[in-house]
Structures are given as C-alpha cells and as structure tokens.
C-alpha cells in the first residue's frame, strides 16, 4: 500500500594489443571516427572504473598509446578479464572522439543507457522494498547535460533512490552525462515520465511529500521535513519550475541566500537539499 506516511509536512600482464579480440564474435561495425557503431563512449578514468567495478564490462576499450598504457594497466587488465576488446590508439583518435571532453587517456564503449519506464517507478513505490523511506529527486526542464550529470552524481552520493525527469525538456543520458556523473548515471535509476505534473500528483497518492524549490517561497529548505517519503523538485536555472509543476507540489521551499547572487547552480542546490535530507534522516547528526 504505497511507501508509508507523508509527514506534516586490479595489475596488467603486458601491453594491450590493437589486434586483440576478446569475448568472441565479430567486432561491431565502425562509425566515421573508427568507434564501434551503436555504442556509447564513456570517457575518463573514474567513469570507466565505475563501470568495471559494477561488472558492466564495455564491449571495447581504447587506451591512449604511451604513458597511459602503464598508468592505466590495472584498469586495462580488469577490462580484459571481463572480455572487453582492448585497443591502443593514438591520442588524436581519442581527442577527436571526445570532442573536447577530458578523456584522461581511456574511452570505453558500452550499450547506450536508457531511462526506466514510468510503470517501473509506480511498481517500485507501490511495493517499496526498503526500510528507509524513498528519497527522490525530480528535475523539471534541466536540459544542460553537465547539470544533469552533476545532479545524478549528487543523487548517488546522497543515497537518493531515483531521479525523475519528463520525456520532453530534459537532457539525454549521453556520453557527457556519464562522464560528468562519474558512474552515477549507471547506478542511480532515472525514471522518465510522460506528464510531470500528473506524475507528482500520483506520487502524493502513494504517500510521497512533494517539495518544490522556488526563490519566492516563504519556508526555508532547512525548516522542511525530509524524514518521510520525499520528492525534491528542482527547476531549470533561470526559469525554475513550470507552472503546472509548481501547482502540483505540496509546498514550496527555498535556500536562504545571504550574498548578492539570487540563485545557485541547479546541481549545487540539489546537492544541498539532498544532503539536508541525509542529515535529518540521521537524526540531525553531522
């Protein structure tokens, strides 16, 4: 019957061989850059290591020739053991593929990420399996991939149980998001809903208290109750939440701003809100 109450509120064994093939089968077709077609590129040491630590072995791993081969030897060996095809490529190949992103000498190619369905969200909430009440982050109109990735990273760090986004006016789960999120894009469930206002209304029927953030709110974020089932709604920078989203919230809260700036980056604000929930759920202990 829903989720409960609503408050009153690893060492390498040699140099990777560009001719190696692991895991059997034919190599995927190549795109214009030489990268495997139909796969997403995941850039950077932390993001790639997060994949391997979870057992999500990439289909193919590119390592920059030179010093990176030795520096990333352990990571390369992990990928090999999992069955990844490991190739040593010139730096220019990685630079061209990353299009300015910081690849740190390694790129993994994995199947694209897909958001979970709205139905899976309701199924999970209706048969909530955890002792802790759900903590959800809702992003309304956050289209910048860097902000989206940073929000996912904050959600993962705070132990949030999922991030809800609308099908329209939302950043895609692409390579940049995965790089910025440093593994959180794979670990935090992202639920895509058709109509955000309607989804918030249903959250409320399932016992989730919906807290929307707005600069004009009278209640400070630190005075809100995050101890029960909560969905924290963040709007896009500048525009904030859309009208229907705002009207679907139980109450509006704000971050008290003492300086000259009127607002914070959405990922920073989301992190503050989520960790206030963590503080309260630990009984106010630091």
Give structural attributes.
11 strands, elongated, 11 helices, 286 residues, 4-stranded mixed β-sheet
Encode the helix/strand succession as letters. Answer: EHEHHEHEHEHEHHEHEEEHEH
Shape: elongated
Structural class: alpha/beta
Instruction: Give the averaged pLDDT, no decimals.
Output: 85
Specify the biggest β-sheet.
Answer: 7 strands, parallel
Helix content: 25-40%
Number of strands: 11
Q: Please work out how many helical segments DSSP would assign.
A: 11
Order of strands, main sheet, comes to 7-6-5-10-8-11-9
Rg = 21 Å
Question: Your description of this structure?
Answer:
- The chain has 286 residues and is α/β, with parallel strands linked by helices.
- The protein contains eleven helices and eleven strands.
- The strands form two sheets. Strands 7-6-5-10-8-11-9 form a seven-stranded parallel β-sheet, sandwiched between helices.
- The two termini are 33 Å apart.
Brief overview:
The chain is α/β, with parallel strands linked by helices and 286 residues long. The protein has helices at residues 45-53, 67-71, 73-82, 91-98, 118-126, 145-158, 175-181, 184-187, 196-205, 243-247, 266-281, and strands at residues 40-43, 60-64, 85-89, 106-110, 135-140, 162-166, 190-193, 209-213, 219-220, 230-235, 251-254.
Question: Helices and strands in order, then pairings?
Answer:
Blueprint: E1 40-43, H1 45-53, E2 60-64, H2 67-71, H3 73-82, E3 85-89, H4 91-98, E4 106-110, H5 118-126, E5 135-140, H6 145-158, E6 162-166, H7 175-181, H8 184-187, E7 190-193, H9 196-205, E8 209-213, E9 219-220, E10 230-235, H10 243-247, E11 251-254, H11 266-281
Parallel strand pairs: 2-3, 5-6, 5-10, 6-7, 8-10, 8-11, 9-11
Antiparallel strand pairs: 1-4, 2-4
Helix pairs in contact: 1-3, 6-7, 6-11
């Amino acid at each position: 019957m829903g989720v409960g109450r609503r408050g009153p509120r690893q060492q390498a064994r040699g140099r990777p061989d560009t001719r190696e093939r692991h895991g059997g089968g034919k190599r995927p077709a190549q795109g214009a850059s030489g990268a495997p077609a139909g796969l997403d590129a995941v850039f950077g040491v932390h993001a790639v290591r997060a994949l391997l630590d979870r057992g999500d072995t990439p289909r193919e791993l590119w390592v920059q020739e030179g010093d990176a081969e030795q520096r990333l030897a352990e990571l390369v060996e992990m990928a090999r053991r999992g069955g990844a095809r490991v190739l040593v490529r010139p730096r220019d190949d990685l630079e061209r593929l990353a299009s300015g992103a910081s690849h740190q000498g390694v790129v993994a190619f994995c199947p694209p990420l897909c958001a979970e369905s709205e139905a899976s969200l309701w199924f999970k909430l209706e048969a909530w399996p955890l002792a802790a009440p759900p903590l959800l982050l809702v992003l309304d109109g956050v289209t910048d991939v860097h902000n989206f990735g940073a929000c996912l990273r904050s959600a993962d760090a705070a132990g949030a149980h999922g991030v809800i986004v609308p099908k329209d006016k939302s950043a895609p789960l692409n390579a940049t998001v995965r790089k910025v999120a440093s593994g959180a894009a794979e670990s935090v469930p992202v639920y895509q809903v058709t109509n955000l206002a309607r989804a918030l209304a249903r959250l409320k029927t399932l016992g989730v208290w919906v807290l929307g953030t707005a600069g004009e709110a009278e209640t400070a974020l630190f005075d809100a109750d995050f101890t029960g089932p909560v969905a924290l709604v963040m709007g896009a920078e500048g525009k904030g939440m859309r009208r229907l989203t705002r009207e679907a919230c139980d109450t509006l809260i704000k971050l008290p701003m003492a300086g000259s700036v009127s607002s914070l980056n959405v990922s920073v604000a989301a992190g503050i809100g989520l960790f206030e929930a963590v503080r309260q759920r630990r009984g106010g202990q630091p």
